[in-house]
Structure formats: C-alpha cells, structure tokens
Amino acid sequence: MKSMSLLDRFKAEAQELQPQLVAWRRDFHAHPELGFAEVRTAGIVADHLRTLGLETTTGVGKTGVVALVEPDALHAAAATVLVRFDMDALPIQEQNDVPYRSQTPGVMHACGHDGHTAIGMGVAQMLARHRHELAGRVKLVFQPAEEGLGGAQAMIADGALATPTPQAAFGLHLWSRLPLHQVVVQSGPLMAGADKVDLVVTGVGGHGAMPHETIDAIVIASEIVLAWQTIVSRTVDPTNPAVITVGSFHAGAASNVIAGRAELGCSIRSFDLTTRDLLVRRMREVAEGICAAHRATCELTFTAGVLPTINAEAGASLMRAVATELLGSDQVATITPMMVGEDMSEFLVRAPGCFVLIGANDPAGPLNSPHHSPTFDFDERMLATGAALLAATAAAYLEQA
After folding, report:
1. 193-306, what's its fold?
2. 330 is catalytic
C-alpha cells in the first residue's frame, strides 16, 4: 500500500507534534465554550488553518469551521474525504486541580472535545505539509454543538457537505476508560440513536384533604413511569438493546395541594429507527391508557435527536488496517455497542465511513473518571496517536478511491 510510507511519516510527525498538541489541548481546556458559542475556539482553529495556506470557511452552522486540503491542479473528479472534529464543552463546574483547569465558571471540557480539536489542528498541519502527495481532497470539519444541540445538522444545513461533496467521513472519540492507545474499530453500530420524549399529564388539582374531588396528576404520572419500564422488558425483542430513561419529573408546589399537572422529560435510545418508533408508540399507548383509566388526559411529544452511529464495512476495514499498521493488531479491538449518542452519525449516514474510539487511560494508573464527570481528564499521550490515525486514514482512503 503506497500510503504506508506516508503513514510512517505521519506517525513520526505526530510524535514530534505531541508537545504542541498538548499545549493546544490545555489552552482549549482552560477556555471552554458551550455549543454554538465556540467563538474563541473556532477563531484559533481558523487562524491556524489559514496559516497553513488552506482554503478556510468560518461561520458554518454558526460557529463551525471547514477547510480543504488538496494538491495543486487536482482534477474535478478526484475523491473527497471528510474528517470531523467537535469543539464544544459542557455546562459542568470542573473539580480538577490542574494547571489547565477551566477558567470559565460552570463550563468544562468534560468529554474530550478539547483533545479532538487539538488533534484536528495537528491533522491539518500534517496533511497540509504532504498535500501534494494526496490523491484527492480532504475536507476538515470542526463542528460546534455536538452535545445534543444539533451541531452536525446545523453545519450540513449550512453547506458543509457541498462543493465538494465527500464520499466518506471519518472521525474519532477519545475514551477516558479504555486502555491508552487502544483503537476500537468495528462495522455496524457503535453508538445508539438518542431522542427525547416529553409527556404532560393533566388531571384536576385540589385540596390535599379532599382527594376524592381531584384527579391526582402525580399519582397518575408515577404509574406511567413504572409502567414504561415494562416496555423494554416485555415489548422490545430482548436481543435488541433499548433504553427508556425518565430524567425529570415536575409536579406540584405545596405539600397540602394535589397537583393537577405533571411533566415528564425522557430520553430514549436504540440502534435502529424501527425500535425507536416502537418505543414511542408504546410509550404513548401506555400513557394514554393509564390516563384514561384515571379520567385524566395527556400529551406526548417526540423530538428526534441523533441517529445511531453506524460504521460502514468498507470504512471500518480501512481504519482497522491503518490502526493495525500504526499500533499493531494487539491494540485494535471491538466492544459491545454503547447506548451513548453522537451526532457524527449525521455525517456517516450521508458519507459512509467510520468513527472509532481511542483509549486514553494509563493502564498503570488509576481508572479515569467517566465522561461528563466534573473530574474528567485523560492521558494526553493519545493525542499523537489520534492525529496520526486520522491523517493516515484520510490519505489511505484517497489512494484507494
């Protein structure tokens, strides 16, 4: 494979870039920005891309950045591959005592997107250096608002996949609890689709001493919460994973007043749209049935979130080969698909490719805190691995396209 010599150079150059990758990551970590507010982050990214001489577009999907890496005089029919990096932080107060601790109260990079952005800047630098050795175009996409805010959809609506249109998409997510440098590569599902269901139960409020004159929304909504738990266990095929989580329950304002209204906020997760639709249908049927039995009414609202993250067989095969060449077969693994959601799925459904996980936990040390924790952190030695993997994957895809 011709690109393997280029792969070796990416591996060496990524290691040389490691101090810079760490510096970028720590700067982003100290100055986190929430979804669609990544103004400082996007500005640093765009300035770096322009310094590399890349055609760069800002404001894509509000705060997204897109750049093209391509050799001179490339023919119009040449292939384009997309590589994506997310930039947003979370509304979490950091509890780590580190020099690069968040300086923004109530906001923290608790999912590794600071590392992803730093990796993306390194990928851009290496690809720009070797752009005349590429067999096509690489579209670098720095995405805002991955954390459930629709950043991928916003970028796509703003033309991120147009002129040129990529034929495949690749990306990664560092994982704080997987062994350092381990790469999880698999075809098919990696992460679930995540959607939202809201339910409002309407009864009749009244005096706490006169329950017979009321229709108690709290009692009815409580019964619904419990009944919903049987949907996964008794309606969904047990070989098909699904989750219903009631994350919020709001009702009542005083201990001696029976509430006439209750509001439930729910998250549902599945690996295919058929299962998702089944969950929503049964949630509605169960809620309406219980309300009817108690002379109450309800309104269920479904809000589509992110699609399941599904890797194409060809994309997974390519990334597996690149990861094996970079790290050895003992560092390439598969896992049971996770129920977390990722809007990289929006790119993959339009440009089939592969999304992988890279381990960022030192096996010789304590287990890192989980993602979305106020003490989240990761082993920064994975940054060079991630940069080399994505740069080499992009080059290898273009070579075989």
Report:
1. Alpha-Beta Plaits (3.30.70)
2. no
Please identify which of the residues 38, 70, 88, 346 carries the catalytic annotation.
88
- Tell me if 3-190+309-400 shares its fold with 193-306: no
Q: Domain residues of the chain, as ranges?
A: 3-190+309-400, 193-306
Q: How far apart are CA 286 and CA 281, in angstroms?
A: 9
Beta bridge partners of 172: 356
Residues 6+ apart with CB under 8 A from 58: 42, 46, 64, 65
**pTM to 2 decimals?**
0.94
Active site residue 88: yes
Q: Where are the alpha helices (DSSP H) in 328-368?
A: 345-350
Write down the residue that tokens 């919020």 correspond to: 248
Whether 279 and 302 have beta carbons less than 8 Å apart is answered as no
Which residue type does 354 have?
C
Quickly state the pLDDT bin for 5 (edges 50, 70, 90): confident
User: In sequence order, what are the beta bridge partners of 300?
Assistant: 199
For residue 307, which of 100, 128, 169 has the smallest C-alpha distance?
169
Q: What is the DSSP letter of 174?
A: E
Cα–Cα distance for residue pair 262/202, rounded to 1 Å: 7
* Active-site entry in 146, 147, 325, 346: 146
| pLDDT per position as a tens digit, 77-108 | 999 999 999 999 999 999 999 999 999 999 99
For 3-190+309-400, CATH gives 3.40.630.10
